[in-house]
User: Which sequence fits this backbone?
């Protein structure tokens, strides 16, 4: 079976990563082709990507040009299945599927109503049950909840990495709370810094790893200065290839998001590394976080403060063991008949 994956996001989002994992696993059973925008993360990091034109533009003529070009590319590929991740590609695929005779799969990973035309999608793939509320009737012939998130082999605890990173950051003997994610309002890092300051755990440090998106590094550092925890905040504002080593240096992983998190990639990476986790209950997080491995908090300063205090006194060995066991449930997998009619 030939499957075309239209991955038309420019950056390395959790949604793109989720679809790339499906594509990688599908290669074992099928002939797969990836279509993406030039200069996108996918185009730069994957071999053999077929370039397409942008499908979303304020100028409708340019959007139409992208649609026509997509039709030509798909006609040449002649796929049995097309998988999309965004609304624009899904809508255009709906217009093309009858004439090009393919089945349409859509990965839906947004906390808003699905707006694809009725009776168009053959199979709708959701990363968690939470998103079912956003799917109106008659939008798909079949809805599949596919909880396949983390590469267990890659995201595995490294004792050498832990030692190296702790030496690099000068935190050898400190208790480390760590968070990973783009510096954006939705990640709740301001609430995390406030909660960390209020928790008053003097022997601890907070490490945040992420590149600037909607918040400037200096804003978070300024907040830490105001709250008198600047000397206990380490902010790594760069893309690191040794992220597993950095995660391994944490004692507790923290997901402080105030929204989104319908594909909670970092949460599952923390699980796979074997970290006890503090997490807010937004999006799919409340569905996947278990008491055995996680401490659940509301997305507020005081709730995060209480969770941090609770984590400092918790049985971390027990929580860590539970995380590793729980991670197995979300390891990468794809049934051989996943794309069958």
Assistant:
């Amino acid at each position: 079976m030939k499957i075309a994956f239209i991955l038309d996001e420019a950056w390395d989002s959790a949604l793109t990563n989720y679809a790339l994992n499906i594509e990688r696993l599908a290669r074992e059973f099928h002939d797969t082709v990836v279509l993406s925008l030039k200069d996108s993360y996918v185009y730069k990091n994957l071999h053999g990507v077929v370039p397409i034109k942008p499908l979303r533009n304020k100028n409708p003529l340019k959007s139409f040009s992208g649609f026509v070009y997509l039709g030509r590319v798909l006609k040449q590929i002649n796929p049995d299945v097309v998988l999309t991740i965004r609304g624009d590609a899904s809508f255009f695929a709906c217009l093309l599927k009858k004439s090009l005779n393919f089945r349409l799969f859509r990965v839906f990973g947004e906390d808003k109503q699905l707006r694809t035309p009725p009776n168009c999608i053959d199979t709708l793939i959701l990363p968690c049950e939470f998103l079912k509320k956003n799917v109106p009737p008659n939008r798909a012939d079949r809805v599949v909840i596919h909880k396949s998130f983390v590469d267990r082999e890659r995201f595995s605890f490294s004792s050498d990495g832990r030692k190296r990173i702790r030496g690099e950051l000068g935190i050898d003997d400190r208790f480390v709370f760590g968070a990973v994610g783009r510096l954006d309002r939705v990640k709740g890092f301001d609430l995390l810094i406030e909660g960390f300051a209020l928790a008053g755990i003097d022997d601890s440090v907070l490490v945040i790893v992420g590149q600037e998106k909607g918040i400037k590094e200096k804003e978070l550092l300024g907040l830490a200065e105001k709250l008198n925890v600047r000397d206990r905040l380490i902010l790594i504002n760069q893309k690191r290839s040794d992220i597993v080593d950095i995660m391994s240096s944490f004692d507790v992983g923290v997901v402080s998001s105030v929204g989104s998190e319908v594909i909670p990639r970092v949460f599952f990476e923390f699980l796979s590394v074997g970290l006890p986790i503090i997490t807010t209950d937004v999006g799919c997080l409340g569905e996947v976080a278990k008491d055995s491995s996680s401490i659940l908090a509301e997305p507020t300063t005081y709730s995060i403060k209480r969770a941090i205090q609770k984590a400092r006194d918790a049985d971390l060995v027990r929580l860590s063991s539970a995380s590793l066991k729980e991670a197995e449930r979300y390891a990468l997998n794809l049934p051989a008949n996943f794309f069958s009619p």
Q: What stands out?
A: The first strand starts at residue 2 and ends at 6. The chain has two domains: 2-145, 159-328. Residues 60-77 form the longest helix (18 residues). Residues 220 and 226 are 10 Å apart (CA to CA).
